[in-house]
Sequence to fold (210 residues):
Amino acid sequence: MKGSTKDIIQWHPAFHASNQIEFKNEAEKLTFDSEHLLSKKPMQMGKMIQHLKDFRKLDTVRIEPGIYYITGDPFPIQLLVIKELNPNENRWLQSLRNDVSKPEEITTLLKEYEKNKSSKLYQAAMNVITIANWNAVKEVKESMCEALRELMTDEFKEQEERVTEQVTEQVTEQITTQIIKNLYDTIKDVEKIASLLKMPVEQVERAIKK
Fold:
């Protein structure tokens, strides 16, 4: 995958998908409508707000980080400033930008994506975020893979130790059983054999019967 930020990135499909991710708990109450183009190119935020104030005589009211209400119009309007959104509450929307550089941000996104990678919504959002922040995402992915390899190495080592321990126990049991049988062929006294080997009588009897 090539991730040059100079390439034209189609942000809207990811924005549409991220909206549905963020509001999935209220999805039954909402309608997610696709994009309606108002101009040939996206308007810059400062130019748009100034236009609303000067020509439409509308005001903007900040409700919380990144969320504004446009007042003075017959229709309710909500304005989102992606970069200002709280990442803990709007993680996927807030990540739709080309300067996601903190490793912890990308790690959190990748972990959540891994749990939902079969979802087309998460695929659409993660694809665009990855393209827009390719170098940062690639670096974190490589670090995560290395950590995973180290974790798996430890797990394999533990597994190997468990197997070795089990094999050792089996071999020891086989040797002990053979010793008991040899003694019984000579002594023919279970209790005496148990006393000599400092073992329970029941264990000696089980070994003889094998």
Residues 1-6 have pLDDT under 50 and may be disordered. Strands lie at 59-64, 67-71, 77-80. The first strand starts at residue 59 and ends at 64.
